[in-house]
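Project channel, design review

CF: Before we commit to the Pseudomonas fitomaticsae constructs, I'd like one complete example in the thread so the newer folks can see what an input/output pair looks like. Taking HAAAP family serine/threonine permease.
RD: sounds good, go ahead.
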Amino acid sequence: MNDQANSVEQRFEAAAPAELSSWNRHDTTWMLGLFGTAIGAGTLFLPINAGLGGFWPLVILALLAFPMTFYAHRGLTRFVLSGREGADITDVVEQHFGIKAGALITLLYFFAIFPILLIYSVGLTNTVASFLEHQLHIMPPPRALLSFVLILGLLAVVRCGEQVIVKAMSLMVYPFIVALLFLAVYLIPHWNGGILTTASQVPAPSALLHTLWLAIPVMVFSFNHSPIISAFAVDQKRRYGVHADERSSQILSRAHLLMVVMVLFFVFSCVLTLSPEQLAEAKAQNLSILSYLANHFSNPTIAFAAPLIAFVAISKSFLGHYIGASEGLKGLIVKSGKRPGAKALDRIVAAFMLVVCWIVATLNPSILGMIETIGGPVIAAILFLMPMYAIRKVPAMARYRGQMSNVFVTAVGLVAISALIYSLTA
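CF: and here is what came back for HAAAP family serine/threonine permease:
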């Protein structure tokens, strides 16, 4: 077993796989950790992007949200579980598809997730600087110092190990859920049926399909938590052994149910408050829904709470994506032929992440959104298509063949990838 697998083993408590017992605190922690990775800053733009399509596309997307996200992430979890004990996603790809394919997928996996980590570094710095200046009326420190302190603080949590990261994210989820609920309920008296004005206007089938085609990637990536799935699967296999698939499916289903209910309530509350013209104005101004609502109502409570909610959202998503990015970078280092010890490998990766995230956050480049969009098709391919291909080709996953959910996941994956590529070339 290679050093990378050994380092993964050392992070988790050494214990024999447990029998499948009743739901416990460990399962709740992972459920909230998955929620925390998926539901981040993107959620604050989802009402704008999803609501602009009109009433009927939004209803259809709401109905598709749970199966789209649950079946895809369950497939990726099963793919990691199909590997040997302690193997993460980069090892499992190599085990099933060979050394060359493993190196290629590891490279793509890293470059799909790492740019998102950079975007969160920029977003976190901008959010805190704006909060200090506009809400607390304090002149923020130099951007280089502020970004360094913020990223170093998050990496201090990272250095405590994956289990501490997941626990920290699960704790951060509670205020985020409360904040989303508060905002959604706060808006109820202001509902004016904004999007319902389009309910009587049933779009032509071709227009409806075109709207759904372009909107599906938005919904998919608003609930995406693929960067943490590998660590999740490794921990479930170590803890539950042969029962890992059953328990991980239970955790995933509850996590996705929580995601869909919470986020869709927030989305519908926002779009019932704002008119389609106002949603278009928010998109044109490149504002999150919180910022637009704060300006719309001139409410000091929302104006003060919005950056705090964004800070929590970005921080927990940063932690979740760090797990995937560091996993990919470690895989690249190991597959390059270098075999540093587990502690040395951790230090190398942490130092690289700190320096690059700090430099990018300080420079604040605008090209990062384009990088994220380019990484989208790669994430969709790894999340949707690779596990379905493995089910057809890998003997260890043969028992999952013949399920209708496989066809559904493959179709959604192809739609998401084609829509993302079209958006880039249009």
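RD: helpful, thanks. The CA atoms of residues 158 and 165 lie 6 Å apart.
CF: The chain has one domain: 22-425.
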